[in-house]
Amino acid sequence: MAVIKTKGLVIRETSVSDTDKIITLLTEDCGKISVSAKGAKRPGSRSGYGTQIFTYGQYVLFKGNSTYSLNGCDTITQFYSLSSNLEGFTHAAHMIELASDAASDTQTTALVLNLLLHGLNALVKGRNPLLISSAFSIKLMQILGFPPHMTSCALCNTTEMETLHFSFAQCGILCDNCAKQAENTILLEPGTAKAILHILCSDHSNVYKFELSPDNLTALARIAGRYVSERLDKQYRKLDFLREIDFKYHY
Length: 251
Ligand SMILES: [Zn+2]
Description:
Layout: E1 2-15, E2 21-27, E3 32-37, E4 55-63, E5 68-78, H1 86-102, H2 106-124, H3 129-143, E6 164-167, E7 172-174, H4 176-181, E8 185-188, H5 190-201, H6 214-232, H7 240-245
Parallel strand pairs: 3-5
Antiparallel strand pairs: 1-2, 1-4, 2-3, 4-5, 6-7, 6-8
Helix pairs in contact: 1-2, 1-3, 2-3, 3-6, 5-6
Zinc ion (ZN) binds at residues 153, 155-156, 158, 174-175, 177-178.
C-alpha cells in the first residue's frame, strides 16, 4: 500500500456509518478521488475538521488497488463560512458541481481546483457571487478546450464589427451580416464582451478581478449559464432557488 501526500478540496461528504464517511476530494496530484475516512465522524476525531465539505487541506492517503483511505490531514483553508451567506453558498455549490463534472484527468483536475480555490476565496471576501460564478463558468470552458471565440466574427472572421452578437451555435461573436443569417443570437454590449475577453486572457489569480454594470452582469450570467450547460450537456439547477427569491436571477 503506497502512501501519498496531496493537497485537495473536500467537495462531498457521504455518511457510511455512525463513525465513518467517504469524502470526495479534488486534488492537485491524483485527480478527483473518493477517500474512506474511518472514524472521522467520532466526536473529537483528529480528522473530523479536515474532512468537512469546503475544506482545503494537505491529505496523507493510503492508496490501495482502486481505493484511497485517509491517514491524516492538515487544514489549510476553511471556506465553511460561506454557509452563513445564502447567495454565496448557493453559487459555491453551483461552482463545485461544475468543477466536479469538469474534473477528468489529473492535469485538468489540478487546473480546475486552482480556478475554484481562487473563486471561493473571492466569494469569502464578499465579491458579487453572480460575477464570480459566471467568470468561473467561462474560464472553466476554456480549461476544457471550449473557449468562446471573441476576437473576430466566428463565421466570416472579420474584426470590423459595429455591433456584437453572441451566437451559441457558433460559440462566439458574430458581425451584423452573419448574425442576420444565424439563429439563436443575442446582442452583446461592449462591456460584456470586454469582460469575457478579460476572463479568457487572465491567469487564475486575476480572472475574477473586474467589475460590471448590473445589466452587463446579467448578460454575462445568461451567456455563461447557457454556454456551460450546452458544452457539458447538462441542466444545472443549484441556482434555481435564487431565481425564486431574487429578481436579478430572472434572466
Ligand atoms: Zn461575420
